[in-house]
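sorry for the late reply, my laptop died twice this morning and i had to redo everyting from scratch. anyway the thing you sent over, i finally got around to it. pasting the sequence first so we're on the same page, its 254 residues, then the predicted structure underneath. double check i copied it right bc i was rushing
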Amino acid sequence: MDNAIVATHPHTHETAIAAEHEHIVLPQHRHHFETQEQQREAATFGMWLFLLTEIMFFGGLFFAYLLYRNWYHDAFVVSSNQLSIPLGAANTAILISSGFFMALGVWAAEVKKQGLLVLFLVLTTVFGVAFLGIKAVEYHEKWEKHHIPGASFDVSQFTNPQAYGLHEKPLSPDMAQKTQIFFFLYFAMTGMHAFHMVLGIGLLFWLTWRARRGEFSAGYVAPIENFGLYWHFVDIVWIFLFPLLYLINRHPGV
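ok and here's the structure:
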């Protein structure tokens, strides 16, 4: 190649230093980019474009939720009171912790600490799996209460709350049916969020495998940085979902 030296051992610290001063072409350097820095900037720009489409997607769901909540306020209030604040708060703490470890993972990659990078990626994965476990518990509870929209949806808890030991205002049969809209949006929003979590955990396994092989120990950290952006986006979406679904109007009439 034109004045380029192909590295024999691309994953060593010496190669990383030489690449900075002698323009060594590492295996991660794609031929259609003039420099690795240009490749890194293009990858980061592509990730931000992807996240922009994700913002528009979730933005549509948030808009639909706020619109229907305004139309069927009473139905949405009693429905949100069926969600567990302790489970939602626990998931919030877990996801924030996973974001913290992911940030540490990016730092470890940048300072070429292979052992720490693997550790932080594993911890991020563990907290991500814990989040999904708690979400599965919540979904199972909705299944037991017949609060999954469809033919088996049960509105008796909303039309006659006193029979279930609740102190909320009974809804008319017509308004009680509107609670299905809340639970449809609840499953749509939290389900899509959980789907992004599943994809993220799959990518974490892949990145951890690559990190153990030392692929990010010679200065090539773009995959870790860009995945960190994705994981923090998932964190931020939940930060909005938690108060919107769980906390608003928890005590109507007070």
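Residues 1-27 have pLDDT under 50 and may be disordered.
thats about all i looked at so far, will dig more tmrw
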